[in-house]
Amino acid sequence: MNTQVRSGEDRHIPFRSSRYFCVGNKWYFTTREGFDSGPFASRERAEIGLKRFLHVVKLLPEESQVH
What we know:
Elements: E1 20-23, E2 26-30, E3 36-40, H1 43-59
């Protein structure tokens, strides 16, 4: 479990689990906001999907980003 404090969090560290999960033979990723994305053919594809998602979020204007 990662116990590093993230931007926007106070000292209380919430429980963290993997962002990736498998249902049947399909893989998904989840965000802090509870958004699930998928299905992907493999965990590796889900990891690429999450990287792309985070890249797009960084391109959004600050007021559009979910905190």
